[in-house]
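Worked Example 4.2. Consider the chain below.
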Amino acid sequence: MSMTSICRLASALAVVAVLAGCASPNHRAPVDDRVRTGSTPAAPITSSQPVRLPPGAENAGKPGYYTVKPGDTLIRIGLETGQTWRDIATWNSVTNPNLIEVGQVLRVVPPVAEAGAAAAPVVAAKPITSSRIEARPLEAGKPASAASAGAKPTPPVASSNAASSSAASASDARDTSKDAKDSKDADEPAWIWPANGAIIGQFEEGKRKGVAIAGKAGDPVVAAGDGRVVYAGSGLRGYGNLVIIKHTGDYLTAYAHNQTLLVKEDQVVRKGQKIAEMGATDADRVQLHFEIRKQGKPIDPVRQLPAR
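Applying the procedure from the previous section yields the following structure tokens:
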């Protein structure tokens, strides 16, 4: 090998040695870490922006307000709170009843009632109703009417005994009337059965919110009491074609699974009026699912309806 070749080979080996040294663990090229110490990460920048809360969130947990849960609709909320969906929409300025969101807090009592302005008439009305009920036994005994008609008074001793006897009879009558009335609220309607079939499903607290009444497709469904239709449609899942009626006081009745609806919203109906025809919408067989609710809470219809 010539001297020139040897020199070239030595130069090449020197270059390889230099490259190998640069690639060794002790001579790696530095990594450019773009997240430098002291720099502000991206996340804190976005977290400094205000978090959007659902409408009405400041009222969550307050009496008279309801927090929307998954699957809720205004119709369902109205049924659960004893109000009409239209009233709830009005009280909360909801222009589109289909646009409510989970976590939204809705007012479910009238604004005036919440302030206490409407509470006084309700309290004052109860003694008036009670006094009329208590007056009936006195008319039946007629001790007062005879005296007012100018009947000849009896001798003092007999009169005293008669007065005591009359007072005791009146007291007993009032107690009997009161005991009978205590089983029903003064403002509760005098219900009738909405259909003639047998009960095939009993009310169960926390499970079944009403009773199921058997029948044939097309059988009449009638209003259980006087009232106003606050909903007629099929927008509540699980109820099929549904009618909801608002009655006196805080009572609602619901009639579900109908094949045909014969009334419209805001229509006034009378007790016994045909409002629908029995069917099987959203049900596995023909039946009427019937509910009675007070202030939105389901109560056992069998305990409220007359004995068959």
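The first strand starts at residue 65 and ends at 67. The chain has a mean pLDDT of 75. Compare this with Example 4.1 before moving on.
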